[in-house]
Amino acid sequence: MSLVTPDFGLLVWMTVIFAILFFILAKFGFPIITGMVNKRSDYIGKSLESAREAQRKVDALADEQKRLIDETKQEQSRILNEAAQTRDDILKEARQQAHTEAEAILTQAREDIEAQRETALRDVRRQVAELSVEVAEKLVRGSLSDDEKAEELIGKLIDEAAQ
Hints:
The protein contains two helices and no strands.
């Protein structure tokens, strides 16, 4: 028997064994293999769908993150603007209050100066009056030493007082 040209019996037995083996594989092996291939295919399909869903979620989260960042930037800008406005308002109010207080201090200083001036004028008038009285007293004493001059001075004063 030659390996290159097989005998007819060998071919028959090989065909019978192949048919039995094919029947056994078709009956028991192929359904298991195709079931495993189908399970694997379903698993791969589900994994791809899960991956697509995860990608959609990641994209949605990225969009949400961008939106939140934009909102945060807008909020930050708004807060900074409010802080600047509050600072300006406080400075303006402080300036107004300082101006008002300065006006009040100036008014009080003017009133104090006027009061002191009035007091000084009263003191000067009083001193002038006292000096005048002293001078007049000395003059009258000197004038009244003579009786005739005293009567003449008294008459003159009475005439002036009557007018």
